[in-house]
Write a structure and sequence with these properties.
With about 170 residues, the chain is mostly helical. The protein is built from seven helices and four strands; from the N terminus they run αααααββααββ. The strands form two sheets. Strands 1-3 form a two-stranded antiparallel ribbon.
């Protein structure tokens, strides 16, 4: 009946009964009572400061490593990362290759030279054999999960060159 009269802003029936019982017991405060038990001691300012310092020094550190070093549970450490510091674990975005300015400039020069050669000699393209380049690594490449980092919400994802394990 109250919902019909006042809409969704009306108090629920269970809450009304709860308040009625509180007022019957001569209580004037409608706020929740303190609950028994030990208060949380792991999300203190000191622990938050330690966690923040550790993650700023090494963004690839894991929750388990931080929890062991600080001496708190993994769940509390995750709560500090996500709720208090507003961070989440993100993996690097794979791009085909990461080239610096000089490498890009050199590729432009080679492409321009090739274009000039083709413009000067029309028969040159008949003599050119093309092929795809391959990268060979003498080590095991990091997985996507191994290269993930802690970032604040809204910060850009790190970029990483796409690498493939070699069969050689």
């Amino acid at each position: 009946m109250l919902t019909k009269a006042y809409g969704e802003s009306a108090m629920s029936k269970a809450r009304i009964y709860e308040w009625y019982k509180r007022f019957q017991d001569d209580r004037e405060d409608v706020e929740d009572d303190e609950r028994p038990g030990r208060p949380s001691t792991s999300t203190t300012d000191e622990n938050v400061k330690k966690v923040k310092e550790m993650v700023m020094n090494d963004r690839r550190i894991t929750i388990r490593e931080v929890a062991d070093d600080v001496g708190i549970s993994v769940g509390s450490c995750h709560e500090i990362f996500s709720d208090v510091l507003g961070m989440k674990r993100v993996a690097a975005k794979f791009v085909p290759k990461l080239l610096n300015f000089e490498q890009k400039q050199r590729r432009m020069e080679v492409a321009q030279e090739s274009l000039n050669e083709v413009n000067n000699d029309a028969e040159l393209l008949k003599c050119v054999i093309t092929g795809d380049e391959i990268w060979v690594y003498g080590y095991d490449v990091e997985t996507k999960a191994q290269s993930s980092q802690w970032r604040h919400f809204g910060s850009p994802r790190p970029k990483k060159a796409r690498q493939v394990r070699s069969n050689v």
